[in-house]
């Protein structure tokens, strides 16, 4: 975290010329930036809070975070931002996925921003109009209990194994209306359309649905379930705790569908109360130092830029088959996917 402090001190010196909406070193700007920056964050509190604390300590700008809940995840914060659109109370949204950041742009909730770090990001992780930028990804992974499934040859290697009768009542997944599972569902809908609903119908018949990825992870770690579909940060937490588990990158072979990576994103809220402070926080979050810190932390976020050391303790994704995702198409598919899945889940009650 010392490197973050050094970066942030450098950022203070550079901030006047880094971004397009900054107004030099004027007293007005300094006064504005000195006020607190309100950040809604969907990244779990235990991971995002230390990052925001370093921002405060280094720049002497207070951050006021508002966190999501495990049950509704990003959806709750997004709905709140849309409801506040006329009188925004938030400056920056730190999203732990990407699709709903695009949704917020379409709803007129965001505004373009500039940052010295944008040029370091892959083109597919930058909005052409400057409304969002992606960093620090998680992978959709399988977590296996090695005591319940001791033979490595029996471990599932594809997401489609959720529908395999071999795992009837022994596999788990999170409710696909929230969090990264809803993003996963939208990705499948963008690719397969209504046909993707058949996968979730079969998964509900065969596997056990939990409220969130963390709950599914805990069921595997505690020996209630043989395996689950979850994210790298949740899986890594169980590994760090010494649970009898192994993490698998599904569908990552050369002839398979490809491993899904879902990045964090950051957006600036249109009409934010503290515009200058918001831009400073965005610069900070998009820095290579923050991405490195997230990779080193228990969240084990996967860097999207070359030259940043990947998380220790999990296999690197470099060289694997990664799914090519059109995020705008996924955003188009989100509402259709959610409506269909809501109907499916209501029919099962």
Please describe what this structure looks like:
The chain is α/β, with parallel strands linked by helices and 349 residues long. The protein folds into 2 domains: 170 residues, Periplasmic binding protein-like II (D-Maltodextrin-Binding Protein, domain 2, 3-Layer(aba) Sandwich); 150 residues, D-Maltodextrin-Binding Protein, domain 2 (3-Layer(aba) Sandwich). Helices cover 41% and strands 16% of the residues. The protein is built from 12 helices and 10 strands. β1, α3 and β2 form a beta-alpha-beta unit. α2 crosses α10 and α5 packs across α12.
Q: What's the structural domain tally? A: 2
Separate helix tally: 12
| General form | globular
Name the CATH architecture of the largest domain: 3-Layer(aba) Sandwich
The CATH superfamily label of the largest domain reads: Periplasmic binding protein-like II
């Amino acid at each position: 975290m010392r490197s973050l402090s050094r970066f942030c001190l450098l950022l203070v010196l550079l901030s006047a010329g880094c971004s397009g909406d900054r107004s030099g070193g004027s007293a007005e700007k300094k006064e504005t930036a000195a006020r607190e920056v309100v950040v809604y964050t969907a990244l779990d509190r235990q991971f995002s809070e230390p990052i925001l604390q370093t921002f405060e300590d280094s720049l002497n700008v207070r951050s006021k975070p508002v966190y999501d809940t495990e049950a509704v995840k990003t959806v709750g914060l997004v709905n709140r931002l849309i409801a506040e659109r006329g009188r925004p109370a938030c400056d920056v949204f730190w999203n732990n996925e990407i699709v709903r950041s695009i949704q917020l742009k379409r709803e007129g909730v965001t505004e373009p921003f500039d940052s010295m770090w944008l040029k370091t990001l892959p083109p597919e992780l930058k909005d052409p109009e400057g409304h969002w930028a992606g960093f620090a990804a998680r992978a959709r992974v399988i977590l296996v209990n090695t005591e319940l499934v001791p033979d490595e040859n029996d471990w599932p290697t594809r997401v489609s194994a959720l529908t395999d009768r071999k795992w009837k009542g022994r596999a788990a997944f999170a409710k696909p209306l929230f969090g990264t599972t809803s993003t996963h569902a939208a990705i499948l809908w963008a690719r397969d359309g209504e046909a993707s609903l058949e996968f979730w119908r079969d998964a509900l018949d065969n596997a056990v649905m939990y409220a969130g990825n963390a709950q599914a992870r805990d069921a595997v770690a505690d020996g209630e379930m043989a395996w689950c579909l979850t994210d790298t940060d949740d899986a890594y937490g169980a590994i760090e705790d010494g649970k009898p588990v192994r993490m698998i990158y599904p569908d990552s072979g050369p002839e398979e569908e490809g491993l899904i990576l879902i990045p964090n994103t950051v957006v600036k809220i249109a009409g934010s109360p503290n515009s200058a402070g918001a831009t400073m926080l965005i610069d900070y979050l998009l820095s290579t130092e923050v991405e490195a810190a997230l990779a080193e932390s228990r969240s084990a976020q996967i860097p999207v830029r070359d030259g940043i050391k990947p998380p220790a303790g999990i296999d690197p994704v470099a060289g694997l088959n990664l799914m090519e995702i059109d995020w705008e198409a996924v955003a188009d598919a989100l509402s259709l996917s959610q409506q269909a899945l809501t109907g499916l889940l209501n029919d099962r009650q």
